[in-house]
Amino acid sequence: MFKALRSRNFKLFFYGQSVSVIGTWLQKTAVSWMVYSITGSVFLLGLTTFLSMIPSLFLAPLAGSIIGRYNRHKSMMILQSLAMLQAGALALLIYLKIYNITFILILSLIQGIINAFDMTCRQTMMVDIVDNKEDLPNAVALNSTLTNFARIAGPALAGIILHQYGEDICFIGNFLSYIPVLISLALMKIQPYTKATNKLRMLDDFIEGLDYVKKENQMAKMLLMLTCSSLFVISFNTLMPVFAKDIFNGNAQTFSWFESAAGIGSIISAIYLANLKSSSNIDNIMIGASILLGASIVILALSNSLALTLICMVLSGIGMMGQTSSINIYIQTKSTSHMRSRSISYYMMAYQGMIPVGSLIIGYISHSLGVRTTVAIQGVICLISVVVYLYYKNLKSTEELETCPVRYKN
């Protein structure tokens, strides 16, 4: 399970990130709870998520073109330093008790712009810091495991801190968590980078990347599946503060239970993926995970039991991580070296870029249909998307079979 840690650079990356991602979830949980507590608005709650993620939709293609041309190691250090400054500004704002929703929204947008480049750089850099390329799927899965362990520890810790000390400690904690990351990046020894000689042509690069994805038929179908899920399904998480506070009459700690439960499920899924000996069956894993995600969301929407709801959150975490990580692994392992950064940028567009649009739509629709009905519809959409995916997959297989020459035995 831990074979990718044999690579020194990946080990440094892994240990540095183990602190930083907990800080990220501290801040994310605190922002969600604080915005809803201050405003009582589901729309503003969705808008905050929207602004922190929407830049990926528009900037990911640019990020893919730029990251593929410059030193990814140095780019990562610059981006992490900028993220630390953003976290510090938010921490100072809350420490001074300036609960201005406009400032919070602006800082969320700045965070989203940084993340649009950071996430593309982080994923593309995997191939540079893993010595044995056969360990690349394991590295992707371990990174997902780490992220989702933080998804358990971060909200759980945030629930305690919010209840006992206040939100300013959460934001200060996130600011300080960037220090280990910058140290680990500084200690890495990356082979000299050969700078690209061709000029940056964003439109040409974008078209070339689209043509490549179209030719890689399986990759295109997976990205469409992820786009549908990010736009209409995964955004159900945006409504979890409403479930915690209004439906189950809970507090910040109750909300942290929901986040942690989903994190437990994600870790289970990531551990399973990390132990895969081969990525040849990754398509079937994606299909099974998508079915589990849709079914668990439907049950969650109908549940009146806190225990059952938490179980559904665990199952949704398994499904969500299984779906997104299996697609990520497929792209990382199947993309050619000169197209990897652009392929990953399309992954970031389909995943990170579409979630905020979905969050905004879901926040608006829930006003009209109610939270439970909205979440139930999201689960049904997920299941329908699996049916559509299987239909076109089988249709393609049938066409290939019909075009194959028939061989007769004597």
Descriptive overview:
The protein is an all-alpha fold. It has one domain: Growth Hormone, Chain: A (Up-down Bundle). 81% of the residues lie in helices and 0% in strands. It contains 17 helices and no strands. The longest helix has 33 residues, at 371-403. It is globular and about 55 Å long. It starts with 7 loop residues before the first helix and ends in a 7-residue tail after the last helix. The mean pLDDT is 83.
Task: Based on the model shown, name its key terms.
single chain; 410 residues; mainly alpha; Growth Hormone, Chain: A
- How many DSSP E strands? 0
Oligomerization state? single chain
Overall geometric form? globular
CATH architecture: Up-down Bundle
The run of helices and strands is HHHHHHHHHHHHHHHHH
Q: How many domains would you count in the coordinates? A: 1
Secondary structural class: mainly alpha
Quick structural overview:
This protein has 410 residues and is an all-alpha fold.
How do the strands and helices of this protein lay out in sequence?
Elements lengths: L7 H32 L2 H12 L1 H13 L4 H24 L5 H24 L1 H4 L6 H29 L2 H10 L1 H10 L14 H14 L1 H16 L7 H8 L4 H23 L7 H21 L3 H29 L5 H30 L1 H33 L7
Helix pairs in contact: 1-2, 1-7, 1-8, 1-9, 2-5, 2-16, 3-5, 3-16, 4-5, 4-8, 4-9, 5-16, 7-13, 7-15, 11-15, 11-16, 11-17, 12-13, 13-15, 14-15, 14-17, 15-16, 16-17
